[in-house]
C-alpha cells in the first residue's frame, strides 16, 4: 500500500523503515531531514489517489498547522491519519473539519517507542470504521500480532492512548518508589540483581521492569549519570481532567503526575512552608542554607 509519512523523527523514521521492510511504498516529508518530497504539496503529488497521509509530528501547534495545510491540499476521498499524542478533543474537531471536505480522518494512538521498529507498535485507531479498514494493511505491518484494534469513533484512538499513558505514569511511579525504599534501606541491596530476578516469575514483571534492569546495567544501581528531573507531555494531565469530568477517582495517576512536578523543583517552596510551620508550632528542627540544623 502507498502512504505519505509526515515527520521522520524517532517514531516516524522508524515506522517508515518498518513499513518499507513489509513491502509498502512510503513517500516522505520532513523539512529537517532528507525526504522524498520538499513540501506537503509535492508529497501529495507523489501519491496516487485516493491518498493516505500519516502525520507523525508533536502534538500542539505543529500538528495543527500541518493538518490545516493538509486539509486544504487533500482531495475528497483522501485520508489523514494523526499518529501523534494529540488531545482527543482536537482529533474530534479535526475529523469534523475534514469531513466537511469529504476527507476521512483517523486518529491513531501509537505505543512502542524506539523499540517499535523491531518489535512492532501497539496501535489504537479511532474514526469511521470503513476508513480504518482501508488502512489495515498499514496497521498490520506496523503492529505485532494482535497489537492493533479499531477502538471506536472519532477521537477514540487518542482517548485510549491518553488513558494508556496515564496508566504508564502510575506504573513507573510505583517502580520508582519501591526501588527508592530498597535503596535507602539498612540492607546493601543489589538493585540491578533484584530488578533482574523480578523479571522471571514475579507478579510485578513487565517490559518496563526489563527496561529498568537495562538502565541499571548501563548506569549502575545509583543511576549517577541521570538527573532526577521528570517531564510530562500532557497525557497524564488530560487523563486526570477527564476523570474529574466523569467523577472517576484516579488517585494513583494523580499522585504520579504530582511526583513529576515535584521532581522539577530544586527547592520546593511548599516544603519550606511545611518545615516553617512545624518549627513554629512545635519547635521542630529546620535545615537552613549553609547550616545543618536550626531550632527555636
Largest pleated sheet: 7 strands, mixed
**What is the strand tally?**
7
Span of the ends, CA to CA: 75 Å
Instruction: Give the overall shape, derived from the CA principal axes.
Output: elongated
Strand content: 5-15%
Question: What Rg do the Cα atoms give?
Answer: 23 Å
Backbone structural class: alpha/beta
Low-confidence region ranges: 292-296
Task: Briefly say what this structure is.
The protein is α/β, with parallel strands linked by helices and 296 residues long. It has helices at residues 10-21, 40-46, 61-73, 88-100, 116-119, 129-134, 136-142, 156-183, 191-198, 207-219, 235-245, 251-263, 269-282; strands at 2-6, 25-29, 52-55, 79-82, 104-111, 122-126, 148-152. Strand 4 (79-82), helix 4 (88-100) and strand 5 (104-111) form a beta-alpha-beta unit.
Structural features, described:
The protein is α/β, with parallel strands linked by helices. The chain is built from 13 helices and 7 strands. It has helices at residues 10-21, 40-46, 61-73, 88-100, 116-119, 129-134, 136-142, 156-183, 191-198, 207-219, 235-245, 251-263, 269-282; strands at residues 2-6, 25-29, 52-55, 79-82, 104-111, 122-126, 148-152. The protein has a 7-stranded mixed beta sheet, with helices on both faces. Helix 3 links the parallel strand 3 (52-55) and strand 4. Helix 9 (191-198) runs antiparallel to helix 10 (207-219). The N and C termini lie far apart (75 Å). The relative contact order is 0.08.
